[in-house]
Design goal:
The chain has 286 residues and is mainly β. It is elongated and about 75 Å long. The chain has two domains: 113 residues, Sandwich (Immunoglobulin-like); 129 residues, Immunoglobulin-like (Sandwich). It has three helices and 21 strands. The strands form five sheets. The protein has a five-stranded antiparallel beta sheet, with no helix packed on it. Strands 9-16-14-19-20 form a five-stranded mixed beta sheet. A four-stranded mixed beta sheet has the order 1-11-2-5, with no helix packed on it. InterPro entries: FimB/Mfa2/Mfa3 (IPR014941).
């Protein structure tokens, strides 16, 4: 959260009061640069006063070519709490609460990823971000309120490479990630949830031999998950169509091994900044 202020020079008593603007930044990523203009298409900001009384909702949809986004804040002087969810589309998330706007409280602004009755999630999710800010607005100076966003979705591209001339088809390889991370609280922590099994929304075969007369097959799978937490123990499991388990690992421990030595940051910060992973596994002839 960042506040930028500038004084208002009062020349006559008929001047309009200073204006305030709400804007957003997504630089909590591995490139440490603001990717909000390129990535975020929709944002919903819920505004509460200092007593957590609901004031209004600010919603904007945009195209990546639109550049930075600024929303004028036409609010009386006072203290306010902003809770922002970006990328909140009903095709991916459950956020349809059965209450009128006058009954909204911060505690009700939780988000659940959609899944089947059996706890299966196998569709491509809309990217999701979270942010919040608390600020006091006065009209003796203008203020730019910047809400920093954390990305809550992760994408995995998993390659299982076979041996030369092996007959390997997409149906031969089953990939899944299991975790209890499908329900996000209004502070972006995890709420107690059932175990979700994330399965590929895309799967295909490829030949990576690069030589005529030879075939080196690989099965490529893409799947996504919601926010990964250092304290959780999701499992990445890869097995064959006949039930043989090829991989069964603690995903968090494995992903933390991908952090470069030069990245001096705590494990949770790395998991929050990194949002795409490519993992390769090799089959042997046996």
């Amino acid at each position: 959260m960042l506040f930028l202020c500038s004084a208002c020079n009062t020349i006559t008593e008929h001047l309009e009061p200073c204006g305030h603007v709400l804007t957003f930044r997504y630089d909590y990523n591995m490139k440490f640069v603001d990717a909000f203009p390129q990535e975020v298409k929709k944002i919903d900001v819920y505004v509460f006063d200092e007593d957590n009384h609901y004031i209004t909702t600010l919603t904007k949809e945009r195209q990546p070519s639109d550049g930075a986004l600024s929303i004028p804040l036409r609010l009386p002087e006072g203290k306010y709490h902003f809770i922002a969810w970006a990328g909140l589309y009903p095709r991916s998330y459950d956020f349809m609460h059965p209450f009128g706007t006058e009954k909204i409280t911060p505690e009700l602004l939780h988000v659940k990823v959609l899944r089947s009755k059996e706890g299966i999630q196998d569709t491509e999710l809309d990217d999701l971000w979270y942010g919040e800010a608390t600020v006091e607005l006065t009209y003796d100076r203008s203020r730019v309120v910047v809400i920093g966003l954390t990305k809550d979705t992760n994408r995995f591209r998993i390659v299982v490479q076979g041996t030369e001339n092996m007959d390997l088809q997409p149906d031969d390889i089953h990939v899944s990630i299991s975790d209890c991370n499908g329900w996000l609280a209004p502070d972006n922590s995890l709420l107690p949830d059932e175990e979700i099994t994330y399965r590929p929304y895309f799967q295909a075969t490829a030949d990576v031999s690069g030589a005529e007369g030879k075939r080196l097959p690989a099965v490529v799978s893409e799947l996504n998950t919601l926010r990964l937490m250092e304290t959780q123990h999701p499992r990445l499991v890869i097995h064959t169509s006949n039930g043989e388990v090829l991989v069964d690992i603690d995903l968090i421990e494995y992903l933390l091994l991908t952090k470069m030595e030069g990245h001096q940051m705590p494990p949770q910060e790395y998991l929050d900044r990194q949002d795409e992973y490519a993992l390769i596994f090799f089959l042997n002839k046996d």
